[in-house]
Records
---
Amino acid sequence: MSMKRVKILQAEMRQQIAARRWQLAARRCRQAIDLTQKALGNKSADLANLYNDLAEIEAGRQDFSRALHEARKAAAVTELMGPGWAGQEASHIRIRTLTMIGDLCLMLGQSGLEQPELEQAVHVAQATFGIDSDESFMAMNNLGIAYKNCGRFRDAIELFEQPLGALNRRGTANTLLLADLFRNLGGTYHACGDYARAEPYARASWQCARDAFGDMHVRTHAESVAYAIVLDAIGSYGEAEQRYRSAIEAFELAYGQRHLTVARAHHSLAAALALRERWQDAYQAYRRALTVKRHLLGGYSPEVAQVRIGLAGVAIELGDRSRARRWLNAAHRVLRPRLVPTHPVLRTLDRYLFHARPLRRRREVA
C-alpha cells in the first residue's frame, strides 16, 4: 500500500514541477522519500531516483547548495547498492546522479581542473550503452562544458566534435542535444578567440531551438543569448544588445528577476555594454548580475568571480581603483586554483590588477 501511495505522490510531484510550483513539488517528493525508506530501507533504486528528483527540484527553486546535498544522498544510496547493482536502469541512475553532482560542484566552486564525477559519468555511459549512444553523447557534452570552463579547450572541442560527427552521420538526431553541442562548440571557439569559427556553430544552435520551439520560447531565447555573445565579438553590437534585452524580458516573465538564468543574461549584456564603453549602463547590469549570482551561488563560485572581474574593469574606467582592487583580489582567490594558467580570463584579471594599482605603483612596475 505504501508504494502505491509513493506512485501517487510522484505523479503529483511531476504535476507541480510542470507548473513550476517548486515548494509543493518538494513536499510531495519528501513524503515519497519517507514512505520509500519505510517500505524498502536505504538500499533501493526508487530511493536514489527520488533523491535525484529532489535535487532537481531544489535546483529549480534556485537552492543549489541544497540541490547538491540531495544529489549526494542519491550517490550514497547508489554506493550502498554495491557493484552488483548493474544494468541500464542502474546506469541511468548513476549517470543522473554523477552529472548533477559534477555540474553543481562546478557552479558552486567546489571543483578544480579535474572533474571526477563527470568523467565517471562518461565511463558508465560508454560501458553500458556504447560509445555512439545518446547517453554517452550527453555525458561527453556535460564533461566538455566543465573542461571548457576551466580552460581545457582542446579537450572540450574533442568531446563536442565526436558526438556531433556521429549525430550527423546517423542522419536522425536528437535536436536538443544537437543544439547543445553547437552552442558549446561555438562557446569554446569564442573563449579561444576564434570568433569566425564560433559564429556558425552559435547560429546553428539558435536555429535548432527556433525550429523546435519557435521564436518566443525560453529555450530559444537562451540560445539567442549564446549567439549574441559571439555577435558581440564580431562587432554586431546592435543585434546582440537587442537579443540580450529580449531574452531578459522573456526570462523575467518566465522565472522572475532573482533567477540564475536572468543573472547570466544581465552578465552577458553588461559585457556587451562595456565593449561599447557605456560604462554606467554596464556597471548597473554587472551589479544586477552580481547581486543575484552571489546570493544563489555564494562567494566561491567562478561565475561570481567573473562578474567581479567585469565590474572591476568598469570601475577602473570610472576611476574607482580601490573598489576594483577588492573585486579583483576576491576573483583572484577563486579562479587561480580552478583555471589553467593560460586561461584568457586570468590574463584579463592580471591586466586589470595592473591598471587598478595606484598610479605611483604602476610607474614603479613599469
Note: The two ends are 77 Å apart (CA to CA).
---
Amino acid sequence: MYAFGICIDRHYLTPGLATIASLADSLSPRARKAAALRLLSFDLGPPQALLLAHLAKRAGFGSFALARRSPLRTARMATSDRPRDHHRLSVTAHIIRSPV
C-alpha cells in the first residue's frame, strides 16, 4: 500500500477535485484499491470534506483521511543544496531552482 498526500483549501477545492480524478485515472483499479488518499487542510468545512470523501470512495481508493490543521504563525523556508537530498526526494535542482 502507498499513500498520496495533497494539501487543499477551500479556494482550491475544484482543482483539488480535478487532481484526485486525474490521479484516479492514472492508476489501475487494483492500484487505486491499494492506495490511500491523505488530505491536509486548514479551512475545509464538513460539506467539502464529505464531497472529497465521496469522490475518493467512488474513484476506488483504498482509504481516505482528511486532517485539519491550523496554519502556523510563522513559517521557515528550508532549502537544501545537497544533490543527495534532491535524489532522495526524486526532485531535481532545476525544478526547485536551487543551486547544486
Note: The first helix runs from residue 13 to 26.
---
Amino acid sequence: MRLTYRYNIRSLSGRLIGLVLFERKKTKNAFCRAFVKPGSTEQHLKFKGIKQNMGAIWRKCSVAFKGDLKKYSRLRIPYCSRDEIPVYGYYAYFIKFLYKYCADKPEIDLKTVTKEELEMSGCPVTVKNMIEEGYIPAIENVEELINEW
C-alpha cells in the first residue's frame, strides 16, 4: 500500500491494526507492511534469564544501598566528558558492576548466581568498595557511601 500526502501534511509512522506505517521524507510517501513479530533466539533467552536473575538480586538489596547508588549516580554526572553520556539511573550502575565483576570471575554464571554466592566469592558489597576495586568509575568524597547491600 502506498499513500501520497499533499499540502505539507506529514506522513504517518508507527503501528496500526497489525500494520507498520513508515514514511519516506524525500518523496513524501507513506508505506505500510504487515507487522511480523521477530522470533526468539537462544541469545534472547539467555539475556532474559540473566536480566531476571539480576532483577531478583536487585530486589534483595537494601534500601540504604540503593540510596547510596542513587547518590553516586548524581555525584557522577559532573565527571562525564562531552563525549560521554551520563547515566542517570542508578540501576544501570548496578548492572554494569555485576557484568564487570562476573567478567573477572568466569566460574560465576549470571543466569544462576545468587546474592549470597556473590558475597561468598568476595564481591564488594558497598559503593565505596566498588569504586575502590575499579568496577564503577571513580569520584571524590566516597567515604559516606558505605551501606551494604
Note: Residues 2-34 form one domain.
---
Amino acid sequence: MGRKWPGFIAIILLVIGISWRYKSIFTEIWLPEAVVISTVKTLNSPFELFSVFRSTDNYLGSSLYCYLISEPYFDYAYRYLSLTAGTLLLLVFPRLFGESTYAARAVALSVLSLSYPLVIFSADIQGVMLLLLIAALSHALFRIYYNTQKTWPLILFWLTTVAGILTHPSFLLYYLSLMAYSLILTLQPHVERNWFIDLHIVPVIFLFSYYLYFLHYLTPGITGELYSQVGITEFSASFLGLTGIVEHGQTLSGIMLMLLALLVLEILVGIFNGVAEYIFYLLVSVVVPAIFIWLDAPVNWLFIPILFLVIVFGRLLARLFSFGIAGASIYAVVLIVLFWGNWQMFRQLKSYGRGSPKEMLQIISDLTEGDVATVRYIGPVTVKPLFKHYWPRLKGVKDYLLSPVSDLADNPTEWLIEGGFRNVIESAREIIIGRDSYRQVRIFPAAYLSGITYVLYHRVGSNRPGN
C-alpha cells in the first residue's frame, strides 16, 4: 500500500460516515425542525419565506424544500435535502485543498466523515449542511477559475455565491473572507488580472440589492436580525465535537485552546513559507469570525470557519508522515481517538434520539383524566411546535390546552413539561407550586448536541379548598 494507505483508510471512514448519516435521518422530529414545519404550513406562497422567516434563524433553501414537499408520508422525507447535501459535501471536500498533499486530503476527509455534528446536521431539516455544501462548491469553483481562467467556473461561482447569500447570512463569513483574499491577490506585483472585479462584481450587486432594497423596502418591519448563537459555548461544542471531543470541562476547553493554537501556528507557518492560500485560511477561520463576534453580528454557528479549519487540521496531521513510522503511529492513535469519540456520540443518538417528544405526548394523551389535556411548560424552550406537529397524529387523541408556567400558582394544570438543551437533566422527583404537587413521570433524554431533554410531571394532589 505504501504511501496510499491514508487514502484507503479515508475511503473506509467515508463509507462509515455516509452510513451514519443515513441511519440518523430516522430519528424523530425535534423542536427546531417542528418550528420550520409548522411555519411553512402557514405560508400561502413561497415568496412569503422572505418576509416571514427573515426575522428568525431560517435557512432559506431548506425551508423552501419543506414548503415544496408539503406533508410527506414519512417525516424523515423532510431530511432528504440535508442528507443529500451532507453526502455531497464529503465528495466535494477534497476539491478545496489546493496544493495540499495526498495525505493531508485523506486525513481531513477522514475527520470530516466521522464528525458527529456533521452527522446529525445531515439528518436535520435545518439547512446547515446545504449552507456548507454551497460554501464548498463556491470555493471549489473559485479555485478552478483561479487556475484555468475559464468562463464557466466564474459563472457557476457567481450562481453559488448568490445561492449562499440567499441561504443564510452566515455565508458572509466565507464570502467576505474570499473578497479580502481576492483583493490581496489582485494587489500582488506583476498581476495583470483584476481578480477582485472578476469574482465579485455580480455577487456584490446582488448582495446590495437583496439586503438594502428587498429586505428593507419590500418587507417593511423585517430588520433581518437573527437569533445569534455565536458564543464561546456553541463554538467550543461544535469545534470539539467535530474532532470527536464531545463533553465540556476545563480540561477539554484547554485541549481546544491548544488545538486552536496549533492550527493558527500551522496557518502562520504556511504564510511564512509563501503559500498564499493560508492567508485565506487565516481570514476565514480567525480574522473575519473574530470581527463578527466582536460586532455581535447576526450569524449562526461557526461551521463554515470550522470547515476550513479541518483543511488546516488535515495539513497539520499530515506533517506527522514526515517522521516515518513514529509519525504514522501517532496519526493512527489520533484517528482511533477521533473514531471512538464520534462513535460513542452516534451510539448515544441511536439510543436516546432527540428527546422522544412524540412518545412524551402520547403518554400525556393516554393518561389525561378528562377530555382536555392541560399542559404547562417550564424552561427556556417552548413545546408549542411539537404539539402542532405530533398531537393530530397520536392514537386516541384528545384536545389540549398549552400555556407557559407563569400563572401556574393561580391556575393549576394536570401536566408540567420541563425542557432544556442538556443531555442529562438533574430534576426533582416532585415539584410543589402553590398548593399543588407534581410528581415526575419520566425523563426523556436526548443525545448530546442532538436534541432537547424533557422531564414530564403529573399533578398528583392538591390542598386547595374543595379538592
Note: Residues 218-239, 241-251, 462-467 have pLDDT under 50 and may be disordered.
